[in-house]
Every structure is written in structure tokens, then in C-alpha cells.
Amino acid sequence: MTDTSASDLTLEEKASLTSGADFWTTKAIERVGLPSIMMTDGPHGLRKQAGGTDHLGLSSSVPATCFPPAVGIGSSFDPEIVERVGAAIGVEAAIEDVAIVLGPGINIKRSPLCGRNFEYFSEDPIVSGILGAASVRGVQSQGVGTSLKHFAANNQEFDRMRASSDVDSRPLHEIYLRGFERVVKDAEPWTVMCSYNRINGVYASEDPWLLTQVLRDDWGFDGVVVSDWGAVNDRVAGVAAGLDLEMPSSGGRTDAQLVAAVRAGELDESVLDTAADRAIDLVGKAQRRPAVAGPLDVDAHHALAREAAGRSIVLLKNDGDVLPLAVEQRIAVIGAFATEPRFQGAGSSLINPTRVDTAWDELRAVGGENVTYAAGFAVEGGAIAASGRSADDLRAEAVAVASAADVAVVFLGLPAAEESEGFDREHIDLPAAQLEVLDAVIAANPTTVVVLSNGGVVALPFAERVPAIVETWLLGQAGGGAVADVLYGAVNPSGKLTETVPVRLEDNPSFGSFPGEFGHVRYGEGVLVGYRWYDAKGLDVTFPFGYGLSYTTFSYGESSVAASESGDILVRVDVTNTGDRDGREIVQVYAAPVASVVQRAPRELKAFASVALAAGETRTVELVVRREDLAYWDVRVDRWIVESGEYTVEVAASSRDIRSSATVQVEGDAVSLPLTMNSSIGDVLAHPVAGPTVLGALGGFLGELTGADSSAASMMPNDEAMQKMMASFPIGRLIGFPGVDVTHEQVEQLLEGANAGVLTPA
Q1: Strand, helix or coil at 720?
Q2: Continuous segment of H or E residues that includes residue 286
Q3: What's the mean pLDDT when you consider all of the chain?
Q4: DSSP 715
């Protein structure tokens, strides 16, 4: 451990600490006893490159547990399981002497086309923030740091290193920054990773508003800001803006730029000192972790991966209680994914798993000879594709085994080549060859269960033609066992959707502005992202946000809602497991003001809880809606504002399954805007100081305007319409109108007095 500070270093040494030594490690300074530390990819497992690092950091990695990616475990809606997985990743990192795991990723799923959606939790910032904080707490509980990413407004892969996310202030704060703020304040990640993209024209890596004003000054972040790998556009501008560490190494080139900028007086050396001291503090945090000896308990971590995967599965449909399967039933397992599982996404998060379970093996272990298999179709790069069998032959075999079975279980999904880091999807359709096989199987056996493997939302044109659909997302290395657990009922499914499944891609709010053009992508949907859009527009969806079935049923009592002294809203509701199986319900709380001065969605998720209930058990569930989560970003004063008034608070099983509702009065924040000559008459009349005087001064004139004999009134249908029109009329433009017996100077005096809080008689 070192007591080194920037004051002990030469200018060149300070600069060196703010960039990597190679692809994965920071620079050491042996002269003062400062060691280097290693960072590796995450976020759903450890991707530590084996042997010497290559120039792209893409060579094979050491074996590690591949836990369910965020797209899967996000559907658990359970911070407890996310934190446990995070702790396990921290253990594996500590054994490998890794100081920082790069993750979690909490970017918002703005569009289902984003190729990296499998690394992100949700289309909702509250879900992303709560689960992201749990992940950070878990990893860091083991003395290993995290890197919260990608900060910020990084919601596509197309042109990701240059494109500008052009987003207005309200959606930027309310949707795209809100989750980051929650994680920073609740979990204190050691590092935050700035993203590749520009935000409103400014690179995230050199944006002082983002990296200093928002992240540090407003949120209190005191850790290291690290660049995404290759995200630095201008090193000197980046350090000045609040970027502490450039990764990977630039071979000393940008270090020299910093030194030159300081010597030329273009960069204050104190700014470089601050960045160097933060890098030193990060090394100190890493050194405080005692050495951890292996070996890794591979079996225990695999078991945790299986548990987490089981909690991630979403039962979308189960007509006629087709599921769970019975051991004595004849089951036809169809689809290449049953034997060649797709369990993680491609790119920097690709884990070298310690083992991989297949659904076929695990289903066979339960059902024995009653379970048969047909590939049905081939997946690019797999053994079935390599066999050279024709599509017709594979489909005919699938029909044959389906015809002889009581239930056909068809595994469909997206090939790895269709979704990955680095590029976006072009559509949300499953491959046509797979759908053709499904059609043939349904014709042969209508009792067909579809099991999906996909990192992003897919269209489900067959949803009305099959009795059961199971969304498994990407489940990690133990996903095959988890699927068998759910299909045979050893695990009661409890996952719920953290993103909406639309009927059509065209219905998505980003359609038409994703992925942008000529280096810009306009976030024209504003705050109406995900379910907010579908609900506000009244659009049909295939499955709504927050939706998921169980093998049991749950009833909700009437909810009670009350505001606490702190301003938080306390919600209580009795939830009963009314079925004959133990289960787990995700209780959701949505809220919205009854009336608002700004555009709002009909409802917004504000709290949730994962509640385990034995068959027949009733439990009072208590949830807290934080006062700050009721706020909108007021562009007039550039801060969060909670509106005063009545709020509707809904307890729900999904965004479209409201089980009880109540209202509560909320005391809001005062917003005081200075009055000007351009202020509307409505603004002035509403002012507590100026209003009464202005009404007195202008009352006669306004009465004339709204009178039945006035020429102005003749243009409007009634007095109310005239009043509405005049309410938006700038007060300064009334001066000189016939009948307005006040001067410009008198109105100026009135406004000055109102702004000072003291009325000077006009």
C-alpha cells in the first residue's frame, strides 16, 4: 500500500497515471512503489484474457462462470439475486487478482434493435437503477471495483463511436441519466465509464457538463472516470472535462500531449494532479483487498447460475395449463437451440464458461425415454449445420417426432450473428426457416410449447396459435438446467418483462429516428420511452411491460397509500397466493400526477418488490416510492421539480394489469420564475404579488374585451375562449392598447417589485 500523491510525482509521471499501460492494466511507478492494477470485461461474468494481451483484447479468456446476462436476470426484478450474482463475480475476480470488473451496463433499451440490448436491464430507468445498484454492491462487497457504463445516452451500436445522441433536457435527465444517478448515489461504484458517443454534439469523454457538473457536482461521485476502450477523442480536453483515465494504452502519445499542454499553459497542472490523485486512490482501494486464494468453487457458482437463470425465465402464455410438463408425458424436443444453446451475447462480454448445460440433456435427465429430439433446423456455425442435412429433411424429422408426442416443445431464437456488440439488428423477426418449422410442427401437433432464446425482443406472429410461450432470453451457462426446471415445474416461473413486446417494430417510439443519419440520432419521442409510449398512445402490444405468468395465481387486496414526513409515498397491499403451488410475485407500483404542467405518461413505474409466497399464504407487502422519483426535470429552472397536487398510485401485476388504485396528496416544490415584459397575462395574474394589482389595473380593459358588445368578443365563441386567448398574451404588448391605462414604466416598476417580493404601487 502506498502513501503516494500527485505532489510526489514528476509531470511525466502524473500524465502516465492517467492512461493504461496496455489493454487491461494501469501504469505502475516503481520509483514510488505504486503498482499497476488490472481491469477486465464483465458484466455477467469475468472475461480475463488468458496469457499475454493482444492489441484488441479479444483472445481467449480464463474459464469463468457465465451468469445470466442483464436481459435475463433483469426479468427477475429482484435486487437480492442480482447482488448475489455480483458477489460471485467479485469472488472470481478476486481469485484472478482483477481489481475492476467493467460493468454493469445500465443503458436504456430505447429500441429493440440495439445490438447490445442483451447487456442492459430494461427500458425503464428505475428498474435499471435499482438492479444496477444491486450488481455494484455485490461485486464491490468482495473488494473488487465496478465500472458503471456506458455514460451516457449510448443506446445503439451503429456509428457508436461518433454519432451524436441529440436529446432534449427532460428525457436526458428523466430517462437516460436517472438510472445512473441512482446507482452512483446508492452504491458508489469505484469507476464510471464514459461512452463513445457524442451527446448533443459533444463527445462524452470531453464533456465537462456530463463528467463534472452532473456526475461529480450534482451527484457527488468521487471515483475515477474511465473512458470506454478507444473513446477518447481529445485527451487534453478530456482531462480538463473530468476524464481521469484513458483506456487502453496510447503508447505514450497522449501522455506527451498532456505534458505539452501543461508546459504551454493550455492545461492547469492542478487539473492533472486531480486526475492523477484519483488514479492513485483507485490503486489504494484495490490494494486494500486481501489476497484471495483459489480454487474457485465451480459447482457452487454453477448452482447459483442455475438458480438465477430459473428466476429470469418469463412465462408469457400457458393456455389450458399445458405447463408444467408431466414426467410420464411423451415430449418432442425440437430445435437446434436445445442442443446448441445460445446462452450469451457476442462481443466484449463473451465469457469462457466453466461448463454449459443443454436443455436437451437436462430434459432427458428428467423425462428419460419419454423425451425425443429432432433438430428441426440448423444454426449457423453449429454441428447440425456442419452435418449438411437439408432443410426439408430436418423439417420432416421434426414433424415425425412431434406427431408421436403428447407435447411438442420447440426451441426458437436468434442466431449469434444477428445480435452482437458492434452492430444493430435490422428487424425483430425470428428467422423464416425457424418459423416454417414451427408452422409444420403446429400442424402436426397443436399442443406446442415455444421456448425462446434471444438477447432482444422478437416479434411473435404465432402467439395466438400456440398454447404456451416461454421467454428464456439468454440464461448463461446453466440455462439448460433452468429451462428444464421450469418446464417440468421444479421451479415456478416468476420473471416479468422489463421491456415491452410490440406487435410491430413500427409501433416502437424510436421507429423512424433509429439509428439516425449523418452522425446524428434524434430522440424525438422525448420522455415517452418504452411502455410510456405504448400507454400514452393507446397502442396494442403483444405483451406489456411488467408482464409474466406463474403456475399459481395471485390476488391483491386494496392498497393503502400515505405520504411520509420525508415526502416519500408508503404503499401497503395484501398479496395472496391463491393457487396450490408456492410461487413468487413481482408487485409493481406505478404513479402519476392527476394533472401536470408537462407531458407525462399515464403511469410510470416507481417501485417494485419480488415476494415469495407459499400456497395459500397472504403477506402485506410494503413498498416505498421515493419523493425524488416523482419529480420531472423543469427546463425553466434546470432542476428537478415535484409537482404539488393529487397523484394516482397504482399497484399492479404489469403496466396494463392494475390491481388496485389510490390517490395521495403530494406537497410539491415551489417554482419561482422572474416576471418580464414577455411574461403572459396568465403568468402575471397567477403571481402572488403582482397578480392582484395587475387584475385591478387591467380589469376594466379585460372586461371590455370579454363583454358581449366588444369587437374582440365578436371574434370568439364565448368569454371563456377570450380569457384563454388573453392568458397567453405577453403583458408588455398590451401597453398602448386602447383602454389600457398604464404606461411602460409603470409595468416595469410593477414587475421589478413583484420579482423582489415587494409590490410598489403603480
Answers
A1: helix
A2: helix 269-287
A3: 93
A4: G
pLDDT band at 55 (very low <50, low <70, confident <90, very high): very low
Provide, rounded to the nearest whole percent, the portion of the chain with pLDDT above 90. 83
CATH code, domain with 457 = 3.40.50.1700
Q: Indicate which CATH number applies to the domain containing 575.
A: 2.60.40.10
Which among 162, 164, 172, 160 has a CA at the least distance from the CA of 520?
164
Q: Is the dihedral of CA 460, 462, 468, 470 positive or negative?
A: negative
DSSP-assigned beta bridge partners for residue 720 = none
Exposure of 698 in the CB half-sphere (CA atoms within 13 A): 28
Active site residues: 228
Same-domain check for residues 442 and 465:
yes
What burial class does residue 506 get, using C-beta atoms within 10 Å of its C-beta: 0-12 exposed, 13-18 middle, 19+ buried?
exposed
> pLDDT category, 462, cuts 50, 70, 90?
very high
C-alpha span between 621 and 619 (Å, rounded): 6
583 and 714 assigned to the same domain: no
Q: Is the residue at 194 inside a domain?
A: yes
Q: Residue 371's beta-bridge partner residues?
A: 331
**What are the φ/ψ torsions at residue 718 (nearest 5 degrees)?**
-160, 175
Pairing relationship of beta strands 100-102 and 145-151 according to DSSP bridges: parallel
Do residue 414 and residue 502 come from a single domain? yes
Q: Are strands 164-166 and 198-199 parallel, antiparallel or unpaired?
A: parallel
Can you give the CATH number for the domain in which 146 is found?
A: 3.20.20.300
Residues 186-216: tens digit of each pLDDT: 999 999 999 999 999 999 999 999 999 999 9
The number of folded domains in the chain is: 4
Measured between alpha carbons, how far is 597 from 600 in angstroms, rounded to an integer? 9
For residue 716, name the pLDDT band (cuts at 50, 70, 90). very low
Signed CA dihedral, 532, 537, 538, 539: sign only: negative
Could you give the CA distance from residue 151 to residue 580 in angstroms, rounded to a whole number? 46
Longest dimension (CA), the chain: 97
SS3 120: coil
* Half-sphere exposure for 399 (CA within 13 Å, toward CB): 12
Please indicate, yes or no, whether residues 227 and 136 belong to a single structural domain of this protein: yes
CA distance 225 to 151: 10
Asked if residue 511 has pLDDT above 60, the reply is yes
With 50 as the cut, is the pLDDT of residue 348 above it? yes
Split at pLDDT 50, 70, 90, the class of 698 is low
Phi, psi (deg, nearest 5) at residue 71: -60, -30
Domain that holds residue 752: 681-756
When pLDDT is averaged across residues 590-619 and rounded to a whole number, the result is 97
Beta strands in 217-335 (DSSP E): 224-227, 314-318, 331-334
